[in-house]
TrEMBL record, chains A, B:
SMART domains: FCD, HTH_GNTR. InterPro entries: GntR_C (IPR011711), TF_FadR/GntR_C (IPR008920), Tscrpt_reg_HTH_GntR (IPR000524), WH-like_DNA-bd_sf (IPR036388), WH_DNA-bd_sf (IPR036390). Keywords: DNA-binding, Transcription, Transcription regulation. Coiled coil: none annotated. It holds the Pfam family GntR. Residues 17-84 form the HTH gntR-type domain. It comes from Ruegeria sp. PrR005. This is FCD domain-containing protein. The lineage of its organism: Bacteria, Pseudomonadati, Pseudomonadota, Alphaproteobacteria, Rhodobacterales. GO terms for molecular function: DNA binding; DNA-binding transcription factor activity. PANTHER family: HTH-TYPE TRANSCRIPTIONAL REPRESSOR GLAR (PTHR43537:SF20), TRANSCRIPTIONAL REGULATOR, GNTR FAMILY (PTHR43537). SUPFAM superfamilies: GntR ligand-binding domain-like, Winged helix' DNA-binding domain.
Length: 237, 237
DNA sequence: CATCAGTAAAAAAACGATATTTAATTTGAC
DNA sequence: GTCAAATTAAATATCGTTTTTTTACTGATG
């Protein structure tokens, strides 16, 4: 069945979700997972039929993806999935370094006991899956990705600047997209476990300088990874 | 006449602009100038009639204002003009300091002769209006705002990071909005002329440290200004 | 053989009517 | 008189058609 009945609101949690939000979430997932290829056209009519909604619902869902820069639109020639490039990823990584370092610094300065507890908890969950990692199965990588995000979110969760957190979040999502697109065999990358441990220690010690440096390094190490895998893909066209 | 005929494309420059873009630009201007009050409702039906377009055109225009955070929307209860608050402005200013300082640093590092020329030119135009300022007239304040923006844009125009420039731009617009909303008698504020001169000198000298510091100070000085004027407004409700 | 105009097909943008949801108001019971 | 349920009104969200624009195709012309 191509058009899953979205009126079937027998599910528990999805109360009151608007059609636009549903379509938005669905397309968003497609882009972030790489299912929808960069620069590919997003035809309204096709999507309309696929999701069983009206055309302006689709258009509005696509418009909202402009917020996160996940789609582009220009003049009278429709919507496209956001392109990818090495230069773009480097810019994302550089800005992430700046924002994440600032957010961690703020959190260390302002974080209370609750924040510390969140960090400890999130790190525990992440460390667990990173040590006893079976590695291969899809589901466990998904779970690792979730816990990794939760850990990094926890680290900055005492930063009170909504704008900073918002921009940081957008960049994080793009970063994950690049990893998903370019890295074909999804596993837990490099020796990320000890990096997380080091960041955790520095943060709990309230060592701003060190935490900042480690955070920057952590992000910057993703660049050669993407370079190695994205460059061949781009060249092979 | 309430509904200006947008099909009247007898004007020169406005070629190929889509209806959504026109409505978007119009409402955007309303928000940035403070004509549309913060948190006020943006009723689709009313806007539809005002601009003489269909309802989904209005909705899409409003959706695109979500990109810059100039409007908010939640569930099934429509669109609102973005709210303002002192806390919000402080966050904007803090993040602007971070981003602008970085962008200036990058520009000083990478800027070529063309960049320098742009900076010199933009500064000249700004300095001119700031010295011989007649001050009062609306039109000259508008012109000063334009030149001020151009100068600051020129300063960062050698920064190659599109994401950084994009976020910076969004924050700059919000900043201008706060000034317009809270400052009733629009004049060229405080002794901004010498600040610009100092920044200009530091940048042309390629003194990164100093330029960064001056840029941060320049931005931070807007905070007490807004505090002084926005606090009474908020209290008077 | 390339270029260009003209035509046909496809897609995007725009519209306005309909269905749903939320907010406001009235009514009725305690 | 107060609160709650029911009714009405207003506004949002959704839909599918119509109009406009772009793109692809075809054939004539230099």
């Amino acid at each position: 069945m191509l058009a899953p009945d979205r009126n079937n609101d027998s599910r528990e949690g999805a109360a009151g979700k608007t059609a636009i939000e549903e379509v938005h979430a669905e397309i968003r997932k497609g882009i972030l997972t790489g299912l929808l290829e960069p620069e590919s056209r997003l035809r309204v009519e096709a999507l309309r039929k696929e999701y069983g909604v009206g055309s302006s619902t689709v258009r509005e869902a696509l418009s909202r993806l402009l917020i996160e820069n996940l789609v582009t639109t220009e003049g009278q020639r429709g919507f496209h999935v956001a392109p990818v490039s090495l230069a773009d990823f480097r810019q994302i990584a550089e800005l992430r370094m700046l924002l994440e370092a600032q957010a961690v610094t703020d959190s260390i300065r302002d974080g209370d006991d609750d924040w510390e507890a969140r960090v400890v908890g999130a790190h525990h969950r992440l460390a667990k899956i990173e040590t006893e990692m079976p590695g291969k199965e899809r589901s466990s990588v998904d779970e690792w990705e979730r816990r990794n995000r939760d850990f990094h979110d926890a680290l900055v969760s005492a930063c009170g600047n909504r704008w900073l957190l918002n921009f940081r979040d957008i960049l994080y999502n793009h970063s994950v997209r690049y990893l998903r697109i370019s890295v074909t065999e999804r596993t837990i990358p490099r020796d990320v476990r000890s990096e997380h441990q080091a960041i955790f220690n520095a943060v709990i010690d309230r060592d701003v300088e060190l935490a900042e440096k480690l955070t920057r390094d952590h992000i910057w190490r993703t660049v050669p990874e993407i370079e190695a895998r994205l460059a061949p893909i781009a060249a092979a066209e």
